[in-house]
Amino acid sequence: xxxxxxxxxxxxxxxxxxxxxxxxxxxxxxxxxxxxxxxxxxxxxxxxxxxxxxxxxxxxxxxxxxxxxxxxxxxxxxxxxxxxxxxxxxxxxxxxxxxxxxxxxxxxxxxxxxxxxxxxxxxxxxxxxxxxxxxxxxxxxxxxxxxxxxxxxxxxxxxxxxxxxxxxxxxxxxxxxxxxxxxxxxxxxxxxxxxxxxxxxxxxxxxxxxxxxxxxxxxxxxxxxxxxxxxxxxxxxxxxxxxxxxxxxxxxxxxxxxxxxxxxxxxxxxxxxxxxxxxxxxxxxxxxxxxxxxxxxxxxxxxxxxx
Length: 307
Fold this sequence. Notes:
With 307 residues, the chain is α+β, with helices and mostly antiparallel strands.
């Protein structure tokens, strides 16, 4: 994992029922003991993480931690090596619901290279054979489809100069993109215009469009080297906005009439929402609940301006 950036997991092959693994969401009633010694179980109300399981039950929480039932130990004679890509959002939700973070989940949360799983597994196998005297049994089993591969973006170097507002040469732009790990192929055109096919490697999940390539060029060029120029933009002061002026005028008028203006917190706690609504539950008054509130006293959207 430290060499390739790809987390792996090894199962004791002799403890996998029927020599078959399945990948599925946790179900009500599922339970297992993870390698940290804690028993994990899932009920109707709990978030359901992705599990690696056999016919008798869960063996590991996918992308986070394995279980003790198929743990590799001193008596292990054969292992099954798992290398996978897990959705970062799913792993993030699972770690929060379980209160469990590992080196593997830390990397999966931040998105690993989907094409790196097969290479990392092959590298681990080669090291096991070389250093531990292991033997490879059978062929690798591939399941599912890669969520993304290397992709191509059509790019006009002139577009980069237009967005930046200054003019690095085509050669300079190409050098920066190559340094950032992109591959450039010049396209044939019917005119003197220069067009490139820029291949984005699969490990760059943040690059999808020409504007992203502009950012890469500027990052390597250096913002401190941007030529000084007069900024020419149309702006509107907040005090000149018609809505702002109308609101201020109405507020000033009502204050002159001895009215009192209240500035409410938008988020309130469940107990207070119940008090404000005559003891009814927040769901009964359609008070929206935050999935991840910042604090315990700001869990629901205020259903009323009173008080």
